[in-house]
Amino acid sequence: MDATDTTDTTEPADPADQPPPPQPPLPLPLDGLTVVAVEQAVAAPFATRQLADLGARVIKVERIDGGDFARGYDTAAGGLASHFVWCNRGKESIALDLKDPRGLDVVRRLIAGADVFVQNLAQGAAARLGLDAATLCAEHPRLVAVDISGYGASGPYADKRAYDMLVQCEAGLVSVTGTPERPVKAGIPAADIAAAMYAFSGVLAALVRRGTTGRGGPVEVSMLESLAEWMGHPLHHAMHGGTPPARTGLAHAVIAPYDAYPTADGGRVLLSVQNDREWRRLAEQVMGRTELGTDPAYATNAARAMNRDRTDTLVAEALGALDTDEALARLTDAGIACARLRDLHELADHPQLAARGRWREVGTPVGPLRALLPPITLPGGTEARMGDVPALGEHTEALLRAVGMTDEEIAALCRDGVAA
Questions:
Q1: Which of 52, 57, 63, 316 is deepest in the core (most CB within 10 A)?
Q2: Is the Cβ–Cβ distance between 13 and 4 less than 8 Å?
Q3: How far apart are CA 330 and CA 68, in angstroms?
Q4: Pairwise CA distance, residues 89 & 26, whole Å
């Protein structure tokens, strides 16, 4: 080719080799759905908060005399109740007296335009108001209606009062939690959370079914049955093995070493040795006692479990000479599963949560407060909708207008104490 020839001999690009154009983020999966909830405490509010985070519009119906009683549990969150802040972001609050037919009529109007209804009133209260799932689904075939109760709608316990600690006891959780000397309840409302998450997943399942059949339908969740499911391992251990697992504090009932051990700077490190190869690495690389790896008194898990006190003493002596960071580094280098025992302030500053950008701020009546993103992450989609925590009755007037009430009707409801 002549040096002055400027003919372009480049092959045209194959469109198939080009990167696809960037796509707009997917909408939140529940965007466009409306949820009405007559709810209180934790189980129902935590369930509906998951729906709100995923894009649903959640209308929270509260009592006019103080609202959801969880609002009064404490004042730890900048003057607000920590339970309420945790469970109620992203909702609209309307305060109504449901004992007054006019208040109940407002709820019925809201439900008529809703996709989901959730309630966790005392057993029998929803049915007396005509707000139980069976009644509502008969009136609104596309509605998904959820009844959350302590023990279920039938049986000898149906009418028993059901608070989280009581259900933890009835479900046997307390019997396997604590030390050999003393059973203790879980430090979180495990029964409430279990029921909430089954209600949440039940709603999603019913919505999928509605998408194929056109019908929503009732969903029933009880705290006892939810927590009993979570008790599956110790329950099966007892039913089929004959002996319930022992309460062992932070230790493991059948694995050794598996416990928390103090370190030289006042911290505590939990480690778990899952097999005999790991024990040999622990003995050599962390404890500096290679001979313990093959000593018949410690070489197998069965031997270590039988000789648990001495095994724990040896491990504690080794880790007690190290500060927490050094102990964790040595355990990690040796391939031993380990963790730092953190308090709640340390959790709030956890480097993993910070590195993954899991913290946001949500608006509240007392100003912005830190809150964690929900653990369901949808890559390529719109970020979870972490809306404001509502003041009691903050949206009452707007919602009354939305169901067709006039200024005069709204003024009468507020004057008569039916709405606030």
A1: 52
A2: no
A3: 49
A4: 22
Q: How far apart are CA 341 and CA 323, in angstroms?
A: 13
Rounded distance, CA 162 to CA 245, Å? 26
Q: How far apart are CA 23 and CA 309, in angstroms?
A: 59
Measured distance CA(93)–CA(62) in Å, rounded:
7
pLDDT score, position 132: 97
Phi/psi for 338 (5° steps) reads: -155, 165
Of 265, 377, 362, 270, give the one whose Cα is nearest residue 323: 265
pLDDT of residue 1: 46
Residues in contact with 273: Cβ distance below 8 Å, sequence separation at least 6, in sequence order: 255, 256, 257, 258, 279, 282, 301, 304, 336
Low-confidence ranges of the chain (pLDDT < 70): 1-16
Single-letter amino acid, residue 110: L
Residue pointed to by tokens 């979570």: 230
Spell out the SS3 assignment of 279-310: HHHHHHHHCCCHHHHCCCCCCCHHHHHHCHHH
Tokens of 275: 């097999």
Q: How far apart are alpha carbons 245 and 253 in whole angstroms?
A: 7
Q: pLDDT tens across 117-155, in order? A: 999 999 999 999 999 999 999 999 999 999 999 999 999
- Amino acid letter, 300: T
360 within 8 A of 373, measured Cβ to Cβ: yes
* Residues belonging to the active site: 252
pLDDT in tens, 222-242: 999 999 999 998 999 889 987
CB 375 within 8 A of CB 53: no
> Residue 210's pLDDT is what?
98
Q: Give me the helices (H) in 171-291, please.
A: 190-213, 223-230, 232-241, 276-281
Return the H-helix or E-strand segment holding 377: none
Question: Residue 409 and residue 418: Cα distance in Å, rounded?
Answer: 11
